[in-house]
Amino acid sequence: AQSVTQPDIHITVSEGASLELRCNYSYGATPYLFWYVQSPGQGLQLLLKYFSGDTLVQGIKGFEAEFKRSQSSFNLRKPSVHWSDAAEYFCAVGASKAAGNKLTFGGGTRVLVKP
Amino acid sequence: NAGVTQTPKFQVLKTGQSMTLQCAQDMNHEYMSWYRQDPGMGLRLIHYSVGAGITDQGEVPNGYNVSRSTTEDFPLRLLSAAPSQTSVYFCASRRSGRNQPQHFGDGTRLSIL
C-alpha cells in the first residue's frame, strides 16, 4: 500500500528566507507525486506534479520540487518566501494504475511566515 | 467557471441525524471523490466515482453512502451521524487519465454533537 510522510508538522520561516518542505513516500511502482497548498478555510490548490521525465519540477507561485527515487523523496522548495505563502502544504502520491482517485495524502506541514 | 461547488459550508448535527453533503462540478469531469480532513492525518478518501452510475469505496467508507446519477453531482450521505464524523469534508473532481490533477471544492465543515 502507498503511504506519504511529511516529517515536519510546523515550520516557521522569515519572509524572504528560503523554504524546504520534506515529503517521503512509499510505493512499489512508479509514483505520481503532487504538492497541494491549502489556505485557511479554503480547498486544496495544486502547486505542482511529477509523473516522469525531469526530476526537478517547476510549479506555480515560485515553488519547485525535486523527485529523488533513491531517497523516496519529493521535497518542495521556494527560494524566497512571501507572507502570502503562509498555509498548509500537503504532499500526495497517486497509484499509477489506479482507475479511480486513489490519492494518498501526507499529514500536512503548516508554514508560518514571520515578518 | 464555478469549478467544484460544495454545500453547505458549515453544518451542525446531533448524533443520529442524517444529512446529505452536496457536491457539483461544471467541468464535465469523469472522476469525483469525497475526502475527509482531520488534524495531522491529511485527507483520507471516503468514496469515489469513475463515472455516472459507478461508485467504489475508499479508505474510510463506513458510515457514508454515495451515488452518482449524473456526471455533475456526487452527494455524500451520512445516514446516522456520529461524533467521530466531525470533520472537514472535501469533494474533488478530475478528468480521466493518469496525469490529471484533482480539483477541490472549498469544503464543508461538519460538527456532530
Architecture overview:
The complex is a heterodimer of chains A (115) and B (113). Chain A is an all-beta fold. Chain A is 0% helix and 51% strand. Chain A has no helices and twelve strands. In chain A, strands 2, 5, 6, 10, 11 and 12 form a six-stranded mixed sheet that branches. In chain A, a hairpin with a 5-residue loop joins strand 5 and strand 6. The model of chain A has no long low-confidence stretch (mean pLDDT 89). Chain B has 113 residues and is mainly beta. Helices cover 0% and strands 50% of the residues of chain B. Chain B is built from no helices and eleven strands. Chain B has strands at 4-7, 10-13, 19-25, 31-37, 43-51, 54-57, 64-66, 76-78, 87-94, 103-104, 108-112. In chain B, a hairpin with an 8-residue loop joins strand 9 and strand 10 (103-104). Chain B is globular and about 40 Å long. Chain B starts with a strand and ends with a strand. In chain B, 37% of the residues are buried. The chains are: A mainly beta (115), B mainly beta (113). Chain A binds chain B through residues 4, 6, 9, 32, 34, 36, 41-46, 49, 51, 90, 92, 94, 96, 98-108, and chain B through 4, 31-33, 35, 40-45, 48-50, 56, 58, 90, 92, 94, 98-99, 101-107.
